[in-house]
Amino acid sequence: MVKLQLFAGAIMMGIVDGEKENLKISIWRGLRQTSLNL
């Protein structure tokens, strides 16, 4: 459950952060940020 919430948060961060073209990069960036916050 917690992992799913973190993953969803990371994806949302990525969508808010980046353009549609760089969506994957932004999602990875969001994932890295959330993993750093753990």
Architecture overview:
The relative contact order is 0.21. The protein has one domain. It contains two helices and no strands. With 38 residues, the chain is an all-alpha fold. The mean pLDDT is 74.
Give the overall shape: globular
Strand content: under 5%
Rg estimate, integer Å: 9 Å
Mean pLDDT equals 74
Write the layout of secondary structure elements.
Elements: H1 2-17, H2 23-37
Task: Please outline what is shown here.
Helices cover 82% and strands 0% of the residues.
Name the features.
82% helix; mainly alpha; 2 helices
